[in-house]
Structure formats: C-alpha cells, structure tokens
Design a protein that fits this description.
Layout lengths: L15 H6 L8 E4 L6 H9 L5 E5 L16 E4 L6 H7 L5 E7 L4 H5 L25 H7 L2 H12 L4 H12 L7 H8 L8 H17 L1 H15 E11 L2 H13 L7 E2 L5 E2 L2 E3 L8 H6 L7 E7 L3
Parallel strand pairs: 1-2, 1-4, 2-3, 4-5
Antiparallel strand pairs: 5-9, 6-7, 8-9
Helix pairs in contact: 6-7, 6-9, 10-11
Length: 308
C-alpha cells in the first residue's frame, strides 16, 4: 500500500480523510483526482485501492509532476487541464469511472512561490498561469484588456464593488507605463479599496485575475459535465471549493445536474437530477483550520450518481 503522508513543502491536502471517505472507494474501482498538486489526496486514494484498482490524476502545472509517486500499474499521471477529462479518459480507453475528487483553488505551493505572482505577499512578475507553457499572463490582461472588460472581471470574479474605479485607474496608469509586477498593481489598487477590508479586497482582486488567466470557471463547468457523464450509477463526486463562484457551480451541478442550476421536474413535480446529495456541506475542524489557514474557507460537497 502507498503511504498516506502528503508531500512536504508543496501542498497540505485539505479535508483529506473526509473527501476520500466520501468517494466510498471500491478496491477494484476506477477513480480520478483532477487536482493532483502535492499528491496527498491521490496517495490516500491509492492506499484504499486493490491491485485491480486504477487512479488517474490530473495537473497542468509542471511543478506537480515532481510529486508523482513511484507506482506502476495502478496509477497514471495526466499533465493536462482537467477540462479535458473526457478526452483523456477516452484516450486511455476508460468509459466509466467510480469516483472523482477535486480540491479546487490554488495550492499552497503556488501561493508560496515568490516567482509566480499568485500572492500579494511578494513583489513578483504578474504571471498567475497554472500552466506556464501557454496562455496570457495577468500582466497581459491588465495591459491589453479594455476598461469595460477589466471592470467585468473584477466585479464578476472578485465581487468587488469598486470594479469600475479599479479598471479606470489601471487603464490610466498603463498609458504611462505597463503594469508588470504585483507591487505595481497593489500600489494602484490600495487607494481605491476600503481600508478596513483592504487585505480581503486585495485577495479578491488577485483571485479575479487568476480566474481569468486560467479560465477557471469554464474549465470547472466542463469538468463537472464530464464527471456527470462518466460516473457509473452509485459513483461518487467529492469536491472541495474555496470561494462562492466555484461553490455555486458545484452546488448547481449536484442539485440540478447542470452548472446553471436549471431544475427540471417530472409530471408529478419531482426534481429530475442525475445526483443524490450525500452530505450538505462539510467544513474543516477547528484544529485543521488552525494548522492549515488555507482550509478556513473550504467546503466539501459530495454527491452520488443515481441509477439510470
């Protein structure tokens, strides 16, 4: 059996036992961890699988590949965005899965890496790409998007009330000099954010940019739709969320079977959904929150695929 200890200095897995318990693992089953990161959740899943079981773990960040366990036969690492889940399962000849786990959001490693631009704790280039090989950086977006586009991102993805003022300040500043670093962005934003909530609002600003850079909401929607289609009857979906936008998507999928939350009813008024909720919401214990501050906003939702 594989050890269940998380890889040190990369990422501390949140709600480890609760999220894996929620999969109700069958030793011979096929499972997917779409957010490999430091490998903590994957190792726990592997420890519960028999020799006939299979685990496919996704991560688009090259840094995560260093944490891949020395495991042959039962484990496959997929270096890709989880939005391509269905394509990769088809590639590996997998028609159905018994369970899927997702620990959404940003890993401890990304926040602690001074070079990636995910955190305003460090002065760093505004990158924020999970996949460093492709796509626009946060700096590209700040210096290239129109004022209205920027305002929409800050309002929709960061839920920031001064979104338009922030966008206007950025457009004015970049006309003099491109915005290149986290410190430069903070200097622009600080006078506009509420002083008593400055730290929280700054975090929301960085969150909004990160979501846009990585197309997180579109990727999450596509992954959830693929999971819905791939899960066998009785298969489990175990998802940890960290902010209201992604939590709303997950809740909608589990309640209504679609990301929009559009409820369908049968002739008798009963809600038609492919899922049965296993829990309401599980949050980390006080001890876990004290040991791992990242866990404080975490919510775990678990659903089971109904029979056809």
């Amino acid at each position: 059996m594989m050890p269940t200890m998380p890889v040190e200095n990369y990422h501390i897995p949140v709600l480890l036992q609760e999220s894996v318990d929620g999969l109700d693992i069958r030793p011979e089953g096929v499972y997917v961890d779409v957010t490999f990161g430091g490998g903590g959740h994957s190792r726990e899943i592997l420890s519960r699988l028999g020799q006939e079981g299979r685990l496919y773990s996704f991560d688009q960040d090259a840094d995560a590949e260093a944490n891949v366990p020395e495991e042959s036969g039962r484990f496959t690492f997929v270096r890709s965005n989880f939005r391509y889940l269905k394509n990769w399962m088809r590639y590996y000849g997998v028609e159905h899965i018994d369970g899927l786990l997702a620990d959404l959001g940003v890993s401890s490693h990304h926040f602690d890496d001074e070079t990636r631009g995910f955190s305003f704790r460090f002065d760093a280039p505004l990158d924020m790409r999970m996949n460093k090989r492709a796509g626009l950086t946060a700096a590209d977006i700040l210096n290239g998007y129109g004022e209205e586009q920027l305002a929409d991102i800050f309002y929709l993805y960061g839920e920031l009330k001064p979104a338009r003022r922030l966008a206007a300040a950025i457009v004015k500043a970049r006309s003099q000099k491109p915005i290149a670093t986290t410190h430069e962005l903070m200097t622009l934003a600080e006078p506009i954010l509420k002083r008593e909530r400055e730290k929280k609002e700054m975090a929301k600003l960085f969150q909004a940019l990160r979501i846009e850079v990585n197309h997180e909401m579109d990727a999450l929607r596509e992954m959830l739709e693929s999971a819905r289609d791939l899960l066998i009857p009785g298969g489990r979906l175990s998802v940890i969320t960290y902010h209201s936008l992604e939590d709303r998507l997950v809740k909608n999928m589990m309640k209504a079977g679609n990301a929009e939350g559009k409820v369908k009813q049968d002739f008798y008024g009963r809600i038609e959904t492919p899922f049965r909720l296993v829990n309401k919401v599980t949050t980390p214990s006080a001890d876990e929150q004290a040991a791992n501050p990242r866990s404080r906003s975490a919510k775990l939702r678990i659903a089971e695929k109904k029979g056809e």
